[in-house]
Structure prediction request, 716 residues.
Amino acid sequence: MHCIIMAGGAGTRFWPASRRHIPKQLLDITGRGPMVVETCRRLAPLARDEELTLVISREHEEETRRLFPGRGVQIVSEPVGRNTAPCIGLGALYAEHAGAKGAIAFLPADHFIFNTGAFLRALGQAASLAESGTIVTLGIVPNRPDTGYGYIRRDQENIDAEETPAYRVSAFVEKPDLATAKHYLTQGDYLWNAGIFVATPEVILSEIKIHLPDLHKGLERLKSSIHTSDFEREIEVVYGQIASVSFDYGIMEKTKYPLMVVPCECGWSDVGSWASLYDLRREEQDERGNLSEGDSLLIDCEGSFVSSGSGKFVACLGLKNCLVVDTPDALLVADLDKSQEVRKITEALKNTKREKLL
Amino acid sequence: MHCIIMAGGAGTRFWPASRRHIPKQLLDITGRGPMVVETCRRLAPLARDEELTLVISREHEEETRRLFPGRGVQIVSEPVGRNTAPCIGLGALYAEHAGAKGAIAFLPADHFIFNTGAFLRALGQAASLAESGTIVTLGIVPNRPDTGYGYIRRDQENIDAEETPAYRVSAFVEKPDLATAKHYLTQGDYLWNAGIFVATPEVILSEIKIHLPDLHKGLERLKSSIHTSDFEREIEVVYGQIASVSFDYGIMEKTKYPLMVVPCECGWSDVGSWASLYDLRREEQDERGNLSEGDSLLIDCEGSFVSSGSGKFVACLGLKNCLVVDTPDALLVADLDKSQEVRKITEALKNTKREKLL
Prediction:
């Protein structure tokens, strides 16, 4: 099965560990290795290296190639980010060119999945459904009223009764407020949108042709130069012309195909903030809920996450719900509950032209 | 007026800024220069450089001399710390040897005083009283029920009616609990013991002869070698033999002299913790009570003290009452209200033999 790993994210949420030149997907923040490498490893039972295509940002090419030495994984660089629709179209083009048979999977490079078996089963089921000619998403079964995720509302009727359940998608809904999220959880027919989906390259490219014709023209132009010396110049031109648009907005919301969703309980997290990383690493926490890495000493602390990535000795005294991340040139100390606001810092750095720290 | 500056403290309370080799009195933590230099500067209207004697620990000699280039300040090194009684005896010996006339003052090197004028007036008044032959302490008029200071209880009767008030000391009392401290504050006859006092060298040395005869013998032995090449060897021998004892315990509590106290309202602080330093630098705080030094950015923080002494960029987000002190090899993050417990960290470092960080 061919898999397209979308690894173009800029990843400012894990500042100061993540930077422009080394975003989240290239970092080992979970303790399991760099996230993009872990994403590929997770797919190994389904896809050989030659069936994996990483779509990345050109500025990360050197660093990404370093993570896959001597491997057949295909790495495609976008000269600039144009959101997910061009990235997915490019991935479909590459898979088609590589002679991919049947449905292919599109997956973000920077998610955490606890139960790989459950995840791969859902992905395999989605692939079977997608081969009949539609787009099939994975829907994560929620275990809490999370306000940080978009939701997928499903129909009632199970359309794949012989296997595990699968449903028609009745709506994609934006991040809800807490009351709405609680309602979704009790309703039982709402799933988290993990941005993971399966379709054949033909379906993807034909949908792009209908709904994003300019992008389709660009992809047609690129088609003949894949794996030639012209490609880099061509993609530069094409990406200079195409619009920035998300696959959700550009295709998913407009498609006439009957979208489907396969529910999945696999301990998934998009690891969207330091706090969510702290949560998913619960097993590594001490009895007072502290998670510490590197040369650190915690006295009378609770619920805190302390990471010394600079080799420096970090001493913490009497902290509660505190986040400390030390790197060689920047230190972050934050209320762990405010860690999703770390962008306020990167924005301030941008505004004061402190590029080196970004 | 001859002044003895007691600068032998080890100063672990300001870890990681203070270390064994550079204790608090050698640091510029108040923004007014190294504390020992500021202590000398404050005394300038009363004492010429030649009338200032610093009693320090030998391991700090190089660093201390560096702070007084080309100046006539006398620097005397103790080979090991033996608490305050030997330090004060040694200071008295030096003052006597230098031909000091009348009373001399003994002062810690690491205190903060806001109102130098009020302080010097009280010191001058204490000197006049001491010349009649007793020990006169300064008593700081308390403005809050502080549980971190020892107190001096004074008699009711003003014994120096022609000048500003002065009283007989009726008792020295240990650090009280909060209820007791509140009671002291309303009573009105309790003053903070700042460890600052005035007496003639004769009174000091004769009291030592009576109450600490072994120390007196040691000082007699040293007397003839002051300013000779033998001194270093002699003081090594003497300090190897004498007991470690505080002046309060060894002399003050036992003297037959009628101890006196001059009340002083001078904005004094012993700067005993990061929290007390934060308090006394109130004027430098922003409108949300944050005090920051070095390359730092505070977003949505309040009541926090952030010091980047390493040149590193320090970003803080959503902190409350937090202390962040970054140095090149160690970082402290603490609840500011727990900063007096920083010894827990230095003790842990001692126990794990991490000498370089002490």
